[in-house]
Sequence to fold (649 residues):
Amino acid sequence: MIPEVFVVTKEQAVTYDVNAIQALEGIEHVRKRPGMYVGGTDIKALHHLVYEVVDNAIDEALAGFCTRIGITIHADSSVTVEDNGRGIPVGPHPTKKDAKGNPMETVDVVMTVIGAGGKFGGGGYKVSGGLHGVGVSAVNALSEWMVTEVKRDGKWWRQEYKRGVPQGSIQLVGKVPKEETGTKQTFKFDKQIFTEDIDYRFDTLVQRFREMAFVTRGVTIRFVDERADRQMTFYFEGGLTSFVRYLNRNRETLHPVVHVEKDIENIGIEAAIQYTDAYTESVYSFANTINTIDGGTHLTGLRASLTRVINDYARKNGLLKDSDPNFSGDDTREGLTAIVSVKHPEPQFESQTKVKLMNPEVQTYVTQVVGEAFSTFLEENPQAAKAIIAKCLTSARARDAARKARDLVIRKSALESLTLPGKLADCSERDSSKTELYIVEGDSAGGSAKQGRDRHFQAILPLRGKIMNTERARLDKILSSNEIKALISALGTGIGDNFDISGLRYGRIIIMTDADVDGSHIRTLLLTFFFRYMPQLIEDGHLYIAQPPLYRIAYKNQVKYAYTDKEKDKILKELGEKAGIQRYKGLGEMNPEQLWETTMNPANRTLLLVTVEDAAEADRTFDMLMGDAVDPRRKFIQTHAKAVRNLDI
Fold:
């Protein structure tokens, strides 16, 4: 079967001129309520400014008019986004008037009126990433200054804004060749709005742009960071197939990538599927290039079709006995890496943040398209089909063993009157929103933590040694580990199919390990466990990492603590070189009072909140660090060896 390719040609695209720009409302309250438009004023919202502007360029690429997008962070943290699309239409707007009743300049309408853009009436774009006219005007309103440059119809135009207000009329800079078109946006985020000491993170933006390039096949995205002289360029002719290969590059795959692309009722559907030897699934969904992290109807359709096709094939070819039950969705998703991307002219999202697609027809179309393609693949590749079904059979047996192990744990707990682990030092507070659980490495640190804590709201769970590497084991084996059973029992949420966030006994779960190699390893093992088997704890903001001090610096009657080498040098400069320095290699070296004062006292401590900004990249990183493949890990260690700090030898 040769899949139909979803392409919008210039001949098919609808008119994009001043009449295509519709305006919904003004921007007066954007600066007062930035959370409504970009999600707040933290670093995530700061990156969202860049995404909104880049999304407009991506929309031009989806319409078939843009092949190059350049993003530059300048030394002063201003950002330029430039594309070779059609350029914003220039000229008097046909309906929007200014305060004096005169027609507004169309560029000003796009840049200053919330909801202005070519995406609302179906006039300028067939497909776009939602109502992005909201985005660029919000970015303008939240910027100290912004400069818009347009090349269109052989002319080069420029308009300047300050905090969303046009600085005079649009200016004609000069002439350009008629074929030279595009839009260039340069802006500097406003520190009156973003008051925290934050700046753009290169790695965060790189992950987003890589994702965009995978999903928007054939567009070149070049990202330059002049602050640190770093740059990366992305271009993937293979699209989603390349994305799946990228995610699986450290895994043993069972077959080549299965790719399908088809257009049904003006909705573009694309999917790429590959099974590996991993024990978890890596499935991601996109709607109009937006990563729908909470899934939606397209993801439901993908999963349902794979489960149905595998069961049908296994029954038809005698690979499932009559006495065997059908594979469950969990069985058919173990080891699955898949991406599904839809391009919809009228996407419906659950909320403004666009994390879940709601269009009901999409599920039907995705189920049909993926089902046909995957069924054909299994029929034409019997060896691959047998390998996939063997994987599902092993998964089903392991899941049954895990259920029995889980039931045994529950029955045992019931017989023991639901007692908590013996080594858990619980707190007296029962309101989970006020409680904290410290997961501590070793008995000596556990002893100090138990003595130093505030027993009213802080609980301590010491772990003996290193927990199992959950990246290399199925749930049935994981549940045989006493340390992990103690952790699950203490948290109260259950695990796997029985996980329920409402049972969580502690509002904050804090990993507190030594500042050495072993401590880092234990922390990584715990993070792997939470990411793979309790991801909702991370998503809902319950998981933290404690930051114990590295040094105790004393001089006469003064005692200060340093958490970094830079801080140590600063304190030594203040106290003088005669000050005594103690380097803490482990939490057990601190007495209970010191541990409380530096690491556990809410008034003084520093906690790092664990977040996952890019699930696909986190998935690949955990697989590389904790999986079976040695070469990628060795290469990673060699590449980053010089950046390691505080390595104990």
Observations:
- The CA atoms of residues 273 and 319 lie 21 Å apart.
- The chain has four domains: 18-234, 240-399, 420-548+593-643, 551-583.
